[in-house]
Amino acid sequence: MINQGFISMIRKINAIISVLLILIILIHGIAGSTVLLGISYFSFKWLAWIGIFLLIIHIFIGIKFTINSIAISNSHIKNYFRKNILFWIRRITGFGLIVLIFFHLGIYGQVIDGTYVVFKFTTINMISQMLLIIFLFIHICSNINPLLISLGISNGFERKRKIFLILSSITLFLIMSILLYYISWL
């Protein structure tokens, strides 16, 4: 049996990784959106690869905690889904993000002989990117409470409202950027 101190330390590490991931994703999303809109040409791709590395760690920790939670609740598994819908929203959106990130990795283009070649941005591409943004928004928002608790930060309503407002604004900007980019391909 793993002691509680170790589990607490892993939760704290995961919380720090989560904050770094959120920051990296927001920077990547905003930078990528400005590239799509033709405003800038700085995509911070190197930052995205750091994000992928942190994401892999976050996924493994999340899987381990999910397995532990399900094992603990195994005797009440029939009622567990209904009683803890937020737990499952976090896992479903997390899994959905893993799938959608694979689509995202090669959707815009690639470097061929030193030149960046842009792929046609299809309706399927647009839908997958919209789903990525929506799943990301839901995943982050549904995990704000445990994240704040793990970091030892006051769990006040006003703080969560401000975080939600910032995330909503950035999400709207990302969605509008994807839509405008899609329209430019029509």
TrEMBL record:
InterPro entries per the record?
SQR/QFR_C/D (IPR034804)
Q: Which GO terms describe its cellular component?
A: membrane
The record's keywords, sorted A to Z, are: Membrane, Transmembrane, Transmembrane helix
For whether the record's keyword set contains Hydrolase, the answer is no
Indicate the transmembrane segments per the record. 12-40, 46-67, 88-107, 127-151, 163-183
**The keyword Transmembrane is annotated on this UniProt entry:** yes
Q: What is this protein called?
A: Pilus assembly protein PilX
